[in-house]
């Protein structure tokens, strides 16, 4: 796809154009401005929802209705007529929910939801080539797909738990014993707290939140009396929300500075391709990949704050007796940046998606669970070639990391000093391995990915490779 003028990209959207002057003023594409505006409005709506539509004042049906109405409005504001895809998928899968047998409901829902998502990915990118508009509606569609399949599997498991699944499975506490009503179904899938940026959550937790049982249910799960409480407290999310909003602000500032200073396009610049030596290329790759993270930190942390502001996301009491609001958190920034293994990194990045992949694929498939889980992850993300480079490379890196850890880690546990050396080396190797693995995910297209790989392997090959000088066709 040929690069287009920024001023053109800033206006092309199927959503509302009322914020176009602000988009022009900030020099940020209109669809991104609409996204942030919706999330900020959702934050305000979430506080109002918790204070004025609390379970003690309002019936569950009213809470469901308002959550759904706000969610539908936000989707239409951001994506305009593209939002029809969301509504069509929701209605099709509700038809499956009420007509399919329990024994097949998870299969039909999975194949319809993933099939529809894949068709949309293909048509948006390859058939219409982004058409005349640039709005990316696939994000909400991906979240809805996760929720549809999560609920379908939990309804199926609720009827078959004794015969088909190990009761010690991580999915067991989340089984759903009855099919939801239409209002519950659309509220779970389209509520304003998660429709734009997620995260995926469990139906049982969501219904408990709407009915006012969420925090008490989580307190009972963690044996609150042992934490020093003599009666069920009423945790406030305000502190957690303020903390996450501060993290969001820092991420936004980093995005506006670091990300624009080190764009992914610099990985195919003449300097990187022809002049930089191997170590410089490796370090620069790490910096560029670090610079690509703040937009994810911003979107996921803000989405988490929106849910918390509405009173959703309480996870219990931690070991220090503090209330935790990380049930829906999608990342742990500290653990990501200090990860000493590929597994640790992956487990703390896009946490809710990793949980979804584990429950609908990894714990269920009888053969090659790691390989099939990576393939499903790639398919869910989309059809850009870069995704498949990343996830196929991820399979090899995961298997290699397991082998190295199993065969060599025990040699470094005999003393504290050796363990420190081991942690430092594995941290550096992990961060560079992740940068190498995820670079195609950010670059998207085949040509720049192959060019990058040539530059990074040139130290082992005779001659100096020459790659393309542009990222045409990579990033929208």
UniProtKB/TrEMBL annotation:
InterPro entries reported in the protein's UniProt record: LPLAT_7/PORCN-like, MBOAT_fam
Membrane topology: Multi-pass membrane protein
Keywords on record: Acyltransferase, Endoplasmic reticulum, Membrane, Transferase, Transmembrane, Transmembrane helix
Broad class of where this protein is predominantly found: endoplasmic reticulum
Cellular component terms (Gene Ontology): endoplasmic reticulum membrane
PANTHER family tied to this protein: LYSOPHOSPHOLIPID ACYLTRANSFERASE 1, PORCUPINE
Name this polypeptide is given: Membrane bound O-acyltransferase domain containing 1
Phylogenetic classification of the source organism: Eukaryota, Metazoa, Chordata, Craniata, Vertebrata
